[in-house]
Write a structure and sequence with these properties.
Elements lengths: L15 E2 L10 E2 L10 E6 L7 E6 L3 E6 L8 E4 L12 E6 L6 E6 L3 E6 L5 H4 E6 L5 E6 L6 E6 L2 E6 L8 E2 L7 E6 L6 E6 L3 E6 L9 E4 L5 E6 L5 E6 L4 E5 L2 H4 L5 H35 L6 H38 L1
Antiparallel strand pairs: 1-2, 3-4, 4-5, 5-6, 7-8, 8-9, 9-10, 11-12, 12-13, 13-14, 15-16, 16-17, 17-18, 19-20, 20-21
């Protein structure tokens, strides 16, 4: 494990290696010609045998891998290009890396798109496996759920969104649109249904989907300045909030937020599966409608705006019925299992 002596300057384009035991100056700096050409926004150390590998991203549209033992040049480079033309089209803002999936990583971009990538793909074009589009501004926070790695949280514009890797068209859950811009967010490491978001108006929002889903469980005015970042302790009982003015506020969470509730994991599993099914139904119906429109347009049949509205309403109504039918069937199955367990 590396000592707590590594310093990283977000506003600078180069990777800086520092050791506070040897003074305030960096002991090694990457070459300007081989570094990012825009501000570097995120750096994450990788799980490796040597413990000296990390990767970075920047708004210059690149992801670079480094070995801190030799920082003259990056060991690997990935261009954030979804057009497959080899030129940067997206700027990196945030990164996500899960040690249990060492070859996979995710990049949040300033264009509001999240890229799912595979480092060990055969060709550079195949490294970007999928993209998820849903935000109207930069994705400032990106993190997988510690208990359900297929589901991940994104924070950008005025909302926080929860996604499933099985669905690329839309998120499965999202918060309401806030009046103030969101700046950061993270999952609770001990409670799978809880996540936190920070806002430009200095508020910290605590979301507990076991309690309610439409509004935050708790909103706390931490300071009058904008909250820029959040970090939560591994045990989930302490949280640090960094403000725009440079102040750090340390908060202690209650036991209800720092201890897992009874049957919480099973309940969250049902919530994620239910919402994923709902979005899949809506996606399939939407595709069917598009195919019908395409077929009719090829036959020379014109549709009026009123017909389109009626079809859309019928589509939503049918999807809604299918969704609630699925929910009722799940409830019946759960009740049967409970009765069998009691007997």
């Amino acid at each position: 494990k590396l000592p707590d002596c590594w310093r990283f300057k977000q506003w600078y384009q180069r990777r800086v290696r520092g050791d506070t035991r040897k003074g305030s100056q960096p002991i090694e700096v990457s070459a300007i010609s081989n570094s990012h050409s825009d501000p570097l926004y995120k750096c994450i150390f990788l799980t490796s045998k040597t413990g000296t590998e990390c990767f970075t991203t920047s708004t210059d549209g690149q992801v670079l891998w480094w070995d801190i033992r030799k920082m003259a040049e990056p060991t690997e480079t990935l261009v954030l290009d979804i057009t497959k033309k080899g030129k940067p089209t997206l700027g990196g803002i945030s990164l996500e890396y899960e040690p249990t999936m060492p070859t996979k990583f995710m990049v949040g971009t300033e264009q509001g798109i999240v890229l799912s990538c595979n480092r060990k793909a055969k060709t550079p074009a195949e490294r970007i496996v999928a993209n998820f589009s849903g935000h109207y501004g930069p994705v400032y926070a990106l993190q997988r759920n510690p208990f359900f790695p297929k589901n991940f949280l994104t924070v950008g514009d005025w909302t926080a969104r929860i996604w499933s890797e099985d669905l690329r068209e839309s998120s499965i859950m999202w918060t309401k649109f806030h009046k103030s811009y969101l700046t950061d967010g993270c999952w609770s490491p001990v409670r799978p249904a809880v996540f936190f978001t920070s806002r430009m108006d200095g508020c910290l929002d605590v979301w507990d989907y076991m309690f309610k889903q439409n509004d935050p469980t708790l909103s706390l005015q931490v300071c009058d300045d904008a909250l820029n970042c959040l970090r939560i302790q591994d045990h989930g009982s302490l949280m640090a909030c960094g403000s725009h003015s440079g102040n750090v506020t340390l908060l202690e969470l209650s036991e209800s937020l720092s201890q897992q509730q009874r049957n919480e994991k099973a309940s969250v599993t049902q919530i994620f599966e239910r919402e994923t099914k709902r979005e899949k139904i809506l996606e399939s119906r939407y595709r069917e409608m598009k195919l019908k429109e395409r077929a009719k347009s090829q036959q020379g049949e014109d549709k009026s705006g009123e017909d389109d509205e009626e079809n859309a309403e019928e589509l939503i109504e049918e999807a809604d019925k299918n969704f609630w039918f699925t929910v009722e069937q799940e409830k019946i199955g759960i009740e049967k299992k409970e009765k069998e367990a009691e007997q």
